Amino acid sequence: MEPETRMRVTQYLDSLPVGICTIRDDYRIAIWNRTLENWTGIRNTDALWKSVFEVVPLFADPLIKDRVQVIFSGGGPVIFSSRFHPRLFPLMHESQNEGRVQRISITPLELDSGELQAMIAVEDVTAVTEQVIRYRLIKDEIKYELEEKKKTEKALAVAIGKLNTLAAITRHDMNNILSAFVGYLALAQKEQPGETVSVYLEKMKQSADVMRGQIAFARDYQEMGNALPSWNLVSSLVTSCSTNPLFTDVTVIVETGTLEVLADALISKAVYNLLENAVRHGEHTSVIMVTCRDYNDGILIRIEDNGRGIPLHLKERIFERGFGANTGLGLFLVKEILGITGMQIRETGEEGAGARFDILVPFGYYRYQDGDEGVS
Amino acid sequence: MNVSLEVLDGLRELITIGVGHSAGMLNRLTRAHVTLTVPDVFISDEASLLYARSVFSGMTRGEISQVILRFTGALSGSFYLIIPHTSALNLVMILTGEEGSPDEMDALRIETLLEVGNIITGSVMSALSIVLTSRLSFQFPGYQTGPYDSVHPFTLPESDVGIIARTWFLLQKKEIEGDLFIHLTRESYAHLGICIRTAMEKGL
Lengths: 376, 204
Description:
By secondary structure, chain A is of the alpha+beta class. Helices cover 45% and strands 20% of the residues of chain A.
């Protein structure tokens, strides 16, 4: 190589962030760039024209030597992976070597003169290697946790199954006993007891009805969350719930377009309960309107009527357990059903102007069919 | 395609020399007992996928991993080491002594497989170079993975020739099957044939 050309090539190679050296077929070093000088502390002038085995002793290993020989025997580039050869070029100070990892590739370099040299490129891949190892550890941890979670889920499913069976049997037995109790109560009432006893018997009958309601409540509550949530078209839910004869004299308007919500399997019961409340407690409700709009990151679904509304002092209590439990599922259960998929409900109407239930559906739990952007 | 038995024998011998040499290197590199054998060598100019499927019947389902070495000069073409992806992962695990049952070929494992592939392809190319009279130019080896149908190299242009050498890796009583596939232009194949015949006449 002409001295001028050689100088230019050396300048290029010195600017690279990769250690570069070239060796001739007699294994003498022809180029030793600045990055290698900095890493190894071996000056260019001390490396040039010396045997690579002398300057980088690991190259004297017969295996490495055989691999390098592949270049000179026409076999193409050679790769030394960091896994099998973590560090062929030792760093300047012994303390720097700890944990450092190199990847080395050697390519044939045919000069204009026809001479074949081997160009050795040394990359410091310590950071990448550490990152991959960290990634493997994280992946292993996640895998372990998932396996543990699966085991726990399996055990939980068995426990829930047993509890469900026990609860179902208990409810069934209680219902049977309650039927016998109510039957005998009816017979006792026919025996024309005295006035005081009749009052007691009537109170016993009312208590039995409450008990039957609570058993029904327990059944519904147990069913909640048992099945995986699914996507439900809001307009279909409202329309199918409002076909009940209870709504014959009520106009139900739905303006939710193709909005779908991810909800528990009992969502239709929750919607029915809200509509039924509007009619049963609204006294003169003639219109129920269901609309939706964007709200922060989510969607707000509004169910409002033109009934008598809910008194201010009851607004918070209506969602408590047991409130209105005698009529349908109760708003407590509605709140619980919606809550399974992160939906929140609150009453924002004015007494005298009608009830208004706002359901806030969080981001990710609603969507529009066929890419529809929503209701304009 | 009319393949001369002389050329086929010569090729089989050169590939066996290269593969044997690479097995020795792998043994020393990994300190594991690695046996590499080449039971079959096929040569064809069939461009059809059907041909490849019949030869690579075990690999046409699922993903494959391949190390590629492209070259030009007296011979122009590409050299592929092809292994089913799961087998490639097993191969790396055994050679490196890693424990567990990872499902992913991450960057470090790819680099390791690249070195293993490089040892084999480099040794075979060195062996082929014995009969060549001029040097080849090489691109840097590459790695590819994916479904067989999207990364396979076997839809040869009609004018090209494919050399397939079935390869068995036997390590720690585990057998891993792979294939060496050398894709050559027809001129390159003709030149290689001449070189093999000349070398046979002279004696290697």
